[in-house]
Amino acid sequence: MGNTPLYLLITSGFTVILLAILNLHRRIPNKRPRKIRLKRIHKDLALSEYESFVFQLSYSMKYLSDNSIGALVVIENRDNLQKYVILGYEVKAKLTAEFLTTVFGNKKSALHDGGVIIRNFDIVSVSSYFPVTQSNMVSTFGARHRAASGLTETSDAIALIVSETTGNISYSQGGKIFEIEKDNLDAICEKLFQVLSFYID
């Protein structure tokens, strides 16, 4: 299997990861937060699909934050990020909280480092690396934040970051870093609905 993502996951502790997935699956609530409301919807996009996407992403961020697991998740917009996709491990997987938290949850795995790229609701790459910003505005941040800023300086992508040190959740847009309230799942969902509105514009 070589250095494929599946091989790396297996050699990094498949049993531990499987148990973590089963435990996480039991903990994911069946109902989405009540506060979520979507005013507009693209004619070709079912509300349930978009709503599920945002919820899975939000729950992942909350879980990673609660457990102080560092993560970098990039959501592609109009600018194509294929040059970064091929620098990582290319995959084709529907975004789920189980998949995303498993990728970042095993700190001994090579997949823990780098970032995940999402395109049209699907994860298309894991362990991808991005240009680090040279801006002094984010010089006090860690490597994930600086990579997120560097990427969003040169593209219209949105990057979500979880700090391994503090558990703080933030996002980068246009090279800037913005913090998201981390203690409330509803608040995370509502913010991501706003930030990812290009999916329904």
TrEMBL record:
Catalytic activity reported: 2 ATP = 3',3'-c-di-AMP + 2 diphosphate
GN (gene name): dacB
TM helices/strands, residue ranges: 6-25
Source taxonomy: Bacteria, Bacillati, Mycoplasmatota, Mollicutes, Mycoplasmataceae
Protein's UniProt name: Diadenylate cyclase
Subcellular location: Cell membrane
Family of the protein in this entry: Belongs to the adenylate cyclase family. DacB/CdaS subfamily.
Gene Ontology molecular function, alphabetical: adenylate cyclase activity; ATP binding; diadenylate cyclase activity
SUPFAM superfamilies, alphabetized: YojJ-like
Assembly description: Probably oligomerizes.
Organism superkingdom: Bacteria
Organism from which the protein derives: Mycoplasma haemofelis (strain Langford 1) (Haemobartonella felis)
Record-linked InterPro entries: CdaS (IPR034693), DisA (IPR050338), DNA_integrity_DisA_N_sf (IPR036888), DNA_integrity_scan_DisA_N (IPR003390)
Domain DAC: 35-183
